[in-house]
Design goal:
alpha+beta, 2,3-Dihydroxybiphenyl 1,2-Dioxygenase, domain 1, globular, about 40% strand
């Protein structure tokens, strides 16, 4: 079911400020930037030898990432795992009794299909599942 890690999501207050570190200091080059209105974020993806860092800047304080920043401050937001069949993965996890945020897939960055598991299911870690190909 799990094919690998796609990216690690990092909540930031400002993409410009965050890029000074990730790009300026560490030398990672942004490969993709996108606003995802449905999730209330602006994102930048930075490839790092097969795994990407996804910087997440909220578009407002009432968005999920905005609320996360208010509660916890900047830092690790989620881990995204690749799956080959998101619908089958969600059915399996639901049948296993795991708590989900998304019982049905939704749209993510780069037009992908994604779903989030509740942090309680992942021992406090928010886990995103991302389908490898668009159906």
């Amino acid at each position: 079911m799990i094919l690998g890690v796609d990216h690690i999501g990092v909540a930031v207050e400002s993409l410009d400020t965050a890029l000074r570190f990730w790009q300026g200091s560490l030398g990672l080059t942004p490969a993709h930037a996108e606003a995802v209105a449905a999730q209330g974020v602006r994102t930048v993806l930075l490839p790092a030898n097969g795994v990407r860092i996804e910087l997440l800047e909220p578009t407002g304080p009432d968005t999920p990432v905005g609320k996360f920043l208010a509660r916890r401050g900047p830092g690790l937001h989620h881990v995204c795992l690749l799956v080959d069949d998101l619908d089958a993965a969600l059915r399996f996890l639901t049948a296993s009794g795991l708590r989900l945020i998304d019982a049905l897939p939704r749209s993510g960055v780069e037009g992908s299909r994604i779903a989030f598991l509740h942090p309680a299911a992942g021992e406090g870690v928010l886990v995103e599942l991302k389908e490898t190909v668009r159906r």
